[in-house]
Amino acid sequence: MPGLIQVERLVVRRGDREVLHGVTFAVERGGFLAVVGPNGAGKTTLLVAILGLAPPDAGTIALAGRPIQRYSRREVARRLSYVPQSDGRAVSFSVEEFVLLGRYAHRGRFAPPDRDDRRIVRDAMDLTATGTFAERAVSSLSGGERQKVFIAAALAQQADILLLDEPTAFLDPRHQRDTAALLRDLNRTRGLTVVMVTHDFNLAAHCGRDVLALRDGRIAFHGPAEAFLTPDVLEDVYNVPFEVLRPPAGGAWAALGENR
Asked: What is the chain's mean pLDDT, rounded?
């Protein structure tokens, strides 16, 4: 049975450079895939391709068995929501106004939000604990608060799949923990399908059910998260030695090893 997202032999070029080389994988409905790899491995390009914004030079991408190119942009927005990597730019909306933007795919171009839109937005803000600053300007929030607002807007979109690019980048440890806990909860209790790009391989292993590691635009590892945190796999992906620490409480954490 095909996955909710099905990527087959995907090739994407940028000019004369081939960024992705024959990438194949699937994400089942309700899955949580963490995508990792070194800088320049093609992680963000993969997300953009899934969104339909980087047409494949070869291969296919299908959502629910239908090629992405056959979806209109509004249909894509009803199936996929996207939280880009934060770049620190100011957003000149209140929190509630910004989250309401997530309802665009479900409204006419000039239609004002109705009662259902308002209810869905309130629910999204409740889930992300952003309702207490609904009237504040997004630009006035801390990085962690702003990231929760972006996730709230994605939830208000009511898409089947949530794509995130570096959702914990530039956050302090507490907000990293809170964001990771929110994503796990949305996946496990709400059944939301999640694809998350991250540089944090520990976050990938502890949030994702599966990990896809890219290296030079090719798949270096694809499998269960618990199989990812091993010295051999990590060294193969990042080309540096690693140590894997196993706390008494269980689980595992990886750290860079000594240079050889």
From this structure: 90
| Buried/exposed code over 112-135 (b: 16+ C-beta within 10 A; e: otherwise) | ebeeebeebbbebbebbebbebbe
Query: Tell me: the pLDDT tens digits for 11-24?
Result: 999 988 999 999 99
Tens digit of each residue's pLDDT (9 = 90 or more) over 93-150: 999 999 999 998 888 667 888 999 999 999 999 999 999 999 999 999 988 888 999 9
Residue 86 φ/ψ, nearest 5 degrees = -65, 135
The CA distance from 114 to 200, in Å, is 40
Single-letter code of the amino acid located at 44? T
Domains of the chain from N-terminus onward: 5-89+157-228 (3.40.50.300)
Residue 246 β-bridge partners: none
HEC readout, the chain? CCCCEEEEEEEEEECCEEEEEEEEEEECCCCEEEEECCCCCCHHHHHHHHCCCCCCCEEEEEECCEEHHHCCHHHHHHHEEEECCCCCCCCCCEHHHHHHHHHHHHCCCCCCCCHHHHHHHHHHHHHCCCHHHCCCEHHHCCHHHHHHHHHHHHHHCCCCEEEEECCCCCCCHHHHHHHHHHHHHHHHHHCCEEEEECCCHHHHHHHCCEEEEEECCEEEEEEEHHHHCCHHHHHHHHCCCEEEECCCCCCCEEEECCCC
Whether pLDDT at 200 is above 80: yes
CB atoms within 10 A of CB 180: 20
Specify the pTM: 0.91
